[in-house]
Design a protein that fits this description.
The protein is α/β, with parallel strands linked by helices and 156 residues long. It has one domain: Mannitol-specific EII, Chain A (3-Layer(aba) Sandwich), CATH 3.40.930. The chain is built from five helices and six strands, in the order E-H-H-E-E-E-E-E-H-H-H. Strand 2 and strand 3 form a beta hairpin. The longest helix is centred in the last third of the chain and has 16 residues.
């Protein structure tokens, strides 16, 4: 499974104007509303915020990878955001976050969820990839950059 297939124009925020972590997480979760049934969005929100309370998902290098698992979905859901201005996120390197990749997975497919989190980390570890993403002006550009990088890094 590749990351770019989890994203589309409705789940990519190319210039998100948020003031804090809570606002960012809520905005990213809200992008998933067309992919789940009414009421399920709140369960996703609860899962992501519970995970964030356990330990910040600000992984350093201006990136956060918020995530959660829920029982009612069969496939992973994702959202990606580049922020207009960096925000405090309690990151491990104590630096603000400029990009975030939200991943929500089904409880019964834990190994796929972990593999996708690992893939996000490996891709986002590349300075040139992060710089290319930051230079994007639209969700279409961001999606193209993800696709090109994944094909280059992992193949089809």
């Amino acid at each position: 499974m590749n990351l770019y297939s989890l994203l589309d124009n409705t789940t990519i925020l190319s210039n998100a104007n948020v003031s804090d972590k809570e606002e960012l997480l809520n905005l990213m979760i809200d992008t998933l509303k067309e992919k789940v049934e009414d009421g399920q969005l709140e369960e996703i929100r609860k899962s992501v915020f519970e995970r964030e309370r356990i330990m910040s998902t600000g992984v350093g290098k201006s990136l956060a990878i918020p995530h959660g698992k829920v029982s009612f979905i069969d496939e992973n859901l994702a959202s990606f955001a580049i922020l207009k201005e960096p925000i405090e996120f309690d990151s491990i390197d104590e630096k603000p976050v400029k990009m975030a990749f939200l991943l929500v997975g089904p409880e019964k497919k834990n190994s796929v969820h972990i593999k996708l989190l690992s893939r996000i980390s490996r891709l986002m570890n590349s300075v040139s990839f992060r710089d290319t993403l930051l230079a994007c002006n639209s969700s279409d550009e961001i999606l193209d950059v993800f696709e090109q990088e994944e094909i280059k890094y992992f193949g089809n």
